[in-house]
Design brief:
The complex is a heterodimer of chains A (358) and B (270). By secondary structure, chain A is mainly alpha-helical. Chain A is 71% helix and 3% strand. The mean pLDDT of chain A is 88. In chain B, the strands form three sheets. Chain B has a six-stranded mixed sheet with strand order 8-9-10-5-11-12, with helices on both faces. In chain B, strands 4-3-6-7 form a four-stranded antiparallel sheet, with helices on one face. The interface between A and B is large, with 30 and 41 residues. Chain A: It comes from Antarctobacter heliothermus.
Chain lengths: 358, 270
């Protein structure tokens, strides 16, 4: 009833290929944007910013980067965390070498370093695919983390071997470091995530997106209809690594405040891969749904017994949490192997018809 | 009837000069010779068929034409020039489009997107412009969408435009594949068994589309097909292959009367 599309005629191809060919989708997005840009920041506490809003956005962005590579271009990667690390360390070095630099510019530039490294480690994809490529990207994962540890120049030779985010300001307003306000950091993250999401949506619905999907679905046919596979795969690695690198810089500068090399180890890579798979490979929105489920839900579940006044010990809560989230992941994957985004797509199709059977 | 400038077919169509010529093509995989010393030409505006029993090397021949295999010996001449060894995507960009024996559509994409991939060789907006969905990228998208819609109209698949290809039945998939190849506006269209696995009605539809494509766009067509009735009705000239060798070449009537061809199909001991 609410989702009725009858009567919405398109009179040009432009209208048909618009971002929201159905009016209700635009309204829905408007409501979501209203919440994330206005209502959440006005009502959220410090705790909500630090444990829910900021991390969910950053994880979504990292998953979005991985999704471009794995979901759209079909190249499986297990090195996401390492590429995030490249972004974070590049940003750190730029800021220490050029302290006058605008931090937002530095974060956006740091993605180019991880894009370069991503292309380098993407070269094996020209000859191998599937699980074998995953192993090759695993090499990137091990090598880069090792490099973060051993190359002292990267962390300015400090004794701890970790990078510490300095206080950085834009026109006197602190955006990172211990003095920064959460709400400012939230807006910086939100701005960058929104911008990159918009660019990625455009890329995936246009020529490049079709090139990637063709490469994913059947590479031999793709080459025979005129797609340069090398270009297709390497652009996917470059753009994916760029997004992942920016997510890595945000991860350290806007959220963690400090980072050791092992922060960028395999568990983080897998966490992001899970977000992308459960959210839905080959979908932009799925990354957000996946991040809400995997990053947000445990936090909410942890708080639940206390707010409801149920007396259970905190370790018990922790165990229950793992069990509940784990079984939810299995449940969602059984109900819809193509992820939460597909679940929403099916629901939407039903809503368009509802309340009539067809 | 034939001369260097072309000829006129029985139904009165003017056939032009040589568009593509295969000169002494030999293709070996290790010790196996898939094609041995075959020469033939394809003329502009013509429907050229390649027939032969299973394993005769027909599909290998098509793969040589589309650049997927590089011949061991021999030359491919295209539009009056010798074609250097090149990657399949480069061949496609020179105006050679094809369909596949086993449908090779992009299953995860809608029919519209699949047909749009056929236009990729004509689209070259920069990546930043695409990311911003701005100016040249947007204009290019609309312009090509319009061309794709013409192909969709032509092949009568408007109703399934937005359906994911994975949900379509076999016959329609074959038609979508033809649409994708046509969207590229090729100079020569290679069809690998366009009617395999179809019922009579679907075969009739497909034959009609092939003739219409040739008629309306003047596209040169080179096809492989097992259904002799279809081949003899559609094609202007036929190459017959057996065990990697060419055993006949000529109009359908000439080929039908060729003793070697009859032997190959009836199975005379070699």
């Amino acid at each position: 009833m609410l989702y009725r599309t009858a009567g919405q005629y398109k009179t040009s191809y432009e209208a048909d290929q618009a971002l929201f060919p159905v009016r209700q989708d635009a309204v829905l997005l408007g409501i979501i944007l209203l919440f994330v840009w206005v209502i959440f920041p006005l009502t959220a506490s410090e705790f909500t910013f630090q444990t829910l809003l900021i991390p969910i956005l950053i994880y979504s962005l990292a998953a979005l980067g991985l999704n471009i590579l794995t979901g759209y271009a079909g190249q499986l990667s297990l090195g996401t965390a390492a590429f995030m690390g490249v972004g974070a360390y590049a940003c750190y070095k730029m800021i220490t070498i050029m302290p006058w630099m605008n931090p937002i510019v530095a974060i956006l530039l740091s993605g180019f370093f991880s894009a370069g490294v991503g292309v380098m480690f993407g070269i094996p994809s020209l000859r191998i695919k599937g699980f074998y490529l995953a192993i090759a990207t695993l090499a990137a994962q091990f090598f880069l983390v090792w490099l973060f540890e051993k190359w002292a120049w990267l962390y300015n030779y400090n004794a701890s071997g970790a990078i510490q985010v300095p206080n950085l300001d834009i026109f006197g307003l602190y955006v990172s470091g211990p003095q920064a306000d959460s709400i400012v950091q939230y807006y910086v993250v939100l701005f960058i995530v929104s911008l990159l999401t918009w660019l990625c949506i455009n890329l995936t619905r246009g020529t490049l997106g079709r090139t990637w999907k063709a490469t994913r679905d059947m590479d031999i046919a793709a080459e025979l209809i005129g797609i340069n596979l090398m270009r297709s795969k390497l652009t996917a690695f470059a753009i994916s690594s760029y997004v992942v690198g920016v997510a890595g810089a945000l991860f350290v500068f806007m959220w963690r405040g400090a980072a050791e090399p092992n922060l960028f180890d395999i568990p983080l890579s897998f966490r992001i891969l899970f977000i992308a798979i459960i959210g839905g490979l080959g979908s932009i929105m799925g990354n957000y749904l996946g991040a809400i489920l995997i990053v947000g839900l445990p936090v909410v579940l942890n708080l639940l017994p206390e707010t409801l006044g149920i007396p259970i010990s905190s370790s018990m809560v922790e165990h229950l949490n793992i069990m509940i989230v784990g079984s939810l992941i299995v449940f969602f994957l059984i109900v819809e192997p193509h992820g939460l985004a597909q679940l929403w797509r099916l629901l939407r199709e039903k809503l368009i018809l509802w309340p009539f059977p067809y | 009837m034939k001369d260097s400038q072309g000829y006129v077919t029985a139904d009165g169509r003017q056939i032009g000069g040589v568009l593509m010529e295969m000169k002494n093509i030999t293709l070996k995989f290790g010790g196996v010779t898939a094609i041995s010393d075959i020469s033939f030409d394809v003329r502009e505006g013509e429907i050229r068929a390649i027939i032969g029993p299973n394993g005769a090397g027909k599909s290998s021949m098509l793969n040589v034409i589309s650049g997927f295999y590089t011949p061991t010996v021999g030359e491919v001449w295209y539009k009056g020039a010798k074609r250097p060894p090149m990657k399949p995507y480069e061949v496609a960009r020179m105006g050679v489009a094809r369909t596949f024996q086993n449908i090779a559509l992009f299953e995860g994409m809608s029919v519209l997107d699949n047909v749009m991939t056929g236009r990729l060789t004509h689209m070259n907006a920069s990546i930043p412009a695409q990311a911003l969905w701005w100016g040249p990228a947007r204009a290019e998208e609309m312009e090509n969408r319009e061309k794709v819609e013409k192909v969709i109209d032509f092949l009568e698949i408007q109703a399934i435009r937005k359906t994911p290809v994975g949900r379509l039945p076999y016959g329609l998939k074959k038609r979508v594949e033809l649409a994708r190849a046509l969207a590229a506006e090729p100079s020569i269209l290679l069809l690998d068994e366009p009617m395999a696995g179809m019922n009579v009605e679907e075969k009739e539809d497909m034959s009609r589309f092939i003739l219409d494509v040739n008629d309306e766009f003047g596209t040169t067509i080179c096809l492989i097909e097992h259904d002799m009735g279809v081949v003899m009705d559609l094609s202007d000239r036929v190459v017959v292959m057996d065990y990697g060798k060419k055993i006949g070449d000529g109009t359908p009537d000439e080929v039908r009367g060729n003793q070697d061809v009859i032997d190959a199909y009836l199975g005379v001991p070699h």
